[in-house]
Specification:
This protein has about 160 residues and is an alpha+beta fold. About 30% of the residues lie in helices and about 25% in strands. The protein has a single domain, classed as 60s Ribosomal Protein L30, Chain: A (2-Layer Sandwich). β2 and β3 form a beta hairpin. α3 packs across α4. The two termini are about 15 Å apart.
Length: about 160
Amino acid sequence: MSRPTYSTYSGFGALLSDLNHYSQAARLPTSHPIIKCSGQGGWNPDAEDFTEALTMPSTKELVRQQVSQAFANVELTLKTAGCRGWSDVYLVRAYMVSGSNELMEIMQATADALRKWCPEHRPLLTVVEVKALADPRMCVEVEVEALLSPESGTV
């Protein structure tokens, strides 16, 4: 039986991967390959350390920027793993920090990002409210599953 193929994008993705011993995505060897993406935060994927990777979301604008960057990081992860990106996504899990004054802003920003990145379809969505994420500066983490289609050219 075939084994999953793992991938990680360079920069901050590789730093996190090395530090925490995990991959950003796994391609599962099924008849129609599935990509499972690790949770992506709103960090700068080109950052070289934790201090420059994230900004504490203290305003609505920073919350929106972090959500927007998390969705862009998902796109980067998916393309690194060999699929087209958000157009192949069928399932989204968004983890949002509880007690945040911006919780409704995070949810609205997530809905807006879904409209932007998935204009042709509406993937499944599960939102989980959590007390905290891996980095206290994170307000959201987005995890997805994508089914590679023949159009991706890598089935």
